[in-house]
Design a protein that fits this description.
Elements (H helix, E strand, L loop, with lengths): L22 H35 L3 H30 L8 H5 L2 H11 L1
Helix pairs in contact: 1-2
Length: about 120
Amino acid sequence: MAEIHELPGAAAPHPADPEGPSETALTQAAYLFSEIASLAHRTDRQCFYSHAAFDALHVDADHVNLELTRLRDVICRLGWMADLGCAKLTGHEDVRGDAEKWLMPPVYNDIGRREED
């Protein structure tokens, strides 16, 4: 039988509500996770068709970089929504953190870290 691993904080109630997530938080979390699935589906389709298009059209590097940037934008949005969903259910983000950490370019967050040091 496979071992079951729990997410950190998953069993503990949200600190703001000792009885657990509110109905509103659960509804919002359901919406977030639905949006994650939708974005993942679209990203999967784009990856599938982009690969064939790049091969068939002998697309230049600039076009490939544009497509990869678009994919990265979607993937980072997915990650942010997943972290937000985790925060709503457990009280903390589990992977990278808030929207600034997910959606801003790395140099933006590097500047913030340098100012903290």
